[in-house]
Amino acid sequence: MYQEIFFKPFSISGDIFVLSRVLHDWNDEDSIKILSHIRSNMTNDSILYIIELIIPESITRENVEVYMNDLQIWAVCGGTERTLSEYCNLFQKAGLKFEMCRKIRSGETILEVRLDTKMEEGEI
After folding, report:
1. How many Å apart are CA 38 and CA 10, to the nearest integer?
2. What is the pTM for the complete model shown?
3. Which of 26, 48, 51, 115 could connect to 30 by a Cys-Cys bridge, CB 3.0–4.6 Å?
4. How far is Cα of residue 83 from the mean position of the Cα atoms in its chain?
């Protein structure tokens, strides 16, 4: 069912697009496809907000629980929790650029992403 929703191109115009707890369910290749479909519907003024758990860049005793959750997601659905740098890498591959992030009470983070206009102009 989800593959019908996320992996088929769509045509919608909008100023704001929101993905909440979606990308962590998918591997990098599938996540880039999802982001690319959204990107193809964005204008230079559009914003994509992504709500996800951002895991620390390195494993320590204090955050090992987060990495155990990452293992569970991988085992159950083949997805992964990601670090901020891993998300930025996905955005770049999909022709998007990371603008900023805000932590919210749930412990998750809202990532603000826009079109990478340099890619649009062929500068990359």
Report:
1. 8
2. 0.84
3. 26
4. 11
In-domain check, residue 124: no
Domain contains 96: yes
* 5 lies in some domain: no
Helix (H, G, I), strand (E, B) or coil at 103: strand
Nearest to 112 by CA among 54, 50, 23: 50
Query: Which tens digit of pLDDT belongs to each residue from 72-114?
Result: 777 777 888 899 999 999 999 999 999 999 999 998 999 999 9
Which CATH number is 43's domain given? 3.40.50.150
Per the DSSP assignment, residues forming a β-bridge with 18 are 49
Tell me whether residue 24 is one of the annotated catalytic residues. Answer: yes
Choose, from 19, 23, 24, 98, the residue flagged as catalytic: 24
Q: What is the pLDDT of residues 44-73, one digit of tens each?
A: 999 999 999 999 887 777 767 776 776 777
Query: Is 11 contained in some domain?
Result: no
Output the six-digit token pair for 44: 């230079």
Structure tokens at 47: 């914003």
Domain of 46 in residue numbering reads as 16-118
